[in-house]
């Protein structure tokens, strides 16, 4: 299993890494939150740019990424979560890739989040451009309605790997406890039989909370914790999450 090292944090070894979302809408609030998060016991910060009120101005986003990275002094993941996968803002595919192209060329970031079900050619071009700048890529998929079958989860994770993702991520919504077990079993099977790079998997909501703390057992290399406002249902506060990870450490 290959690991991914960004800014002295290695994903894929030891405890699952804690990622904290940054969700503010203005530059002032973002920088204030970054200073607060910098003091928390987390490993990576995800700037969810779909919340940022000036996200449709790519040069402003890229310029602000330098300020946020400096304030955090931690690895920075930048994500535009599309509306169809639970994000804040409907946006054309053309604009989505324009923002990412500008960020890769002009921004300051360690990781970028790219959705699996975007056009293959544009996904491939974005991955190549990111890698040329030594930016790692998370390919991801989110299903806020249901939990697909185990075989479908495995298929999506394997597609991400084949497309050249550095990290493969999937998040699904359970309707019952069996759905949670489906996600965990798919994670274990992918990790043990197919994966050659880190995985991030989670079952969302209260039902799926166990999946956010059991990564080291089943094969998920990172988990998301809240510093205040959660970016997805079922997120646990950073301080509580660290305690639970330490308690369950293998």
From TrEMBL:
InterPro entries the record matches: 3-dehydroquinate_DH_AS (IPR018508), Aldolase_TIM (IPR013785), DHquinase_I (IPR001381), Type-I_3-dehydroquinase (IPR050146)
Active site: 142 (proton donor/acceptor), 169 (schiff-base intermediate with substrate)
Enzyme Commission code(s) on record: 4.2.1.10
Keyword Amino-acid biosynthesis: yes
Function: Involved in the third step of the chorismate pathway, which leads to the biosynthesis of aromatic amino acids. Catalyzes the cis-dehydration of 3-dehydroquinate (DHQ) and introduces the first double bond of the aromatic ring to yield 3-dehydroshikimate.
NCBIfam families noted in UniProt: aroD
Protein name per UniProt: 3-dehydroquinate dehydratase
Organism: Enterococcus avium ATCC 14025
